[in-house]
Design goal:
305 residues; 5-stranded parallel β-sheet; alpha/beta
């Protein structure tokens, strides 16, 4: 485990560090409450446990832990167990410590066997916590990912678009949004079957992804329709980006079970207007441009400043 020891007494802190190092834990140190908060913010995502002395000058352990818990909540950080260390065995002090945000309370001097047993229990908690974090990450990824293509689903893409709209209005930065779909995709399903259709959709995503910049966001809106948030890019550069996507799809046929399947995409793209646009309005504008591209013969880009 990675453990933060907070204690203003050098001998106590060094003795704890020696014990924990023998138990093969990774230890970092702070000498007062303020340093503990700074160290916590720095290593919040890596810490497995905090051992916090109660009696310290300037900022005591109860106050430091209360602030750490507030930071966790305000920044939506993962919970980290905290054990108070104190020479006081008064019931009022133990009660105050737990109410301040502590999870356990050890009385100094701490016997090595007691410390070893507590660390074993904390290791079990840390292992369980890591499994829960991993499971939550998997669930979050599943909730935001299109199962067929592996890119963002509609909800996740709209969340990206919402954030970019807010950022653009705040910092007056420019971006474009594109919608594209596959031309005559129904024919692919009708002529070759839905397995072929799914294959073509996944391959189109692979080709378009080759033309994306690292920061741009590609998502599946539904069916054969997709959206791209093109960050910090408007005008000719945005249009050129969409032309690149179109060319990557149309340049050669897709091969499914030895069968050549030709397809293309129509693209509608618009620049975000900081003064008048919202997520809903830019989406509608891109949709209008997409239908203009289809009406003009498909396999083309329509861009609107």
């Amino acid at each position: 485990m990675k453990i933060l020891i907070v204690d203003d007494t050098n001998t106590d802190r060094l003795l704890l560090k020696m014990y924990l190092s023998k138990l093969e834990h990774d230890v970092i140190e702070a000498v007062n409450g303020e340093q503990a908060i700074i160290q916590y913010i720095k290593d919040a995502n890596e810490l497995d446990l905090i051992l916090m002395d109660v009696q310290m000058p300037e900022m005591g352990g109860f106050e430091a832990v209360s602030k750490i818990r507030s930071i966790q909540e305000s920044r939506n950080l993962e919970w980290v167990p905290i054990i108070f260390l104190s020479a006081s065995a008064e019931a009022e002090d133990i009660d105050e410590g737990i109410r301040a945000g502590g999870d356990d309370y050890l009385i100094k001097p701490i016997h090595q066997k007691v410390l070893s047993a507590k660390m074993l229990a904390m290791q079990r908690i840390a292992d369980m916590r890591h499994r829960l974090i991993l499971a939550n990450n998997v669930l979050e990824a599943q909730a935001s990912t299109d199962h067929l293509t592996g890119i963002l689903n509609r909800r996740a893409l709209e969340a990206v678009l919402d954030r970019e709209v807010a950022r653009s209005k705040r910092f007056e930065s420019a971006f474009s949004f594109a919608l594209f779909d596959l031309d005559h995709f129904k024919r692919v399903n009708d002529n070759y079957g839905h397995d072929a259709g799914d294959f073509v959709l996944a391959e189109v995503v692979k080709r378009v992804s080759q033309g994306l910049r690292s920061d741009d966001a590609l998502g599946r809106v539904g069916g054969e329709e997709f959206g791209v948030v093109i960050f910090n890019c408007v005008g000719k550069k945005a249009r050129d980006a969409c032309e690149r996507y179109r060319q990557l799809v149309a340049e050669k046929p897709f091969i499914f079970n030895g069968i050549e399947i030709k397809t293309s995409i129509s693209v509608g793209c618009v620049a975000f207007d900081i003064k008048t646009d919202s997520r809903e309005s830019i989406y509608k504008k891109a949709d209008v441009c997409l239908y203009e591209a289809k009406g003009a013969g498909r396999n083309r880009v329509v861009y609107q400043e």
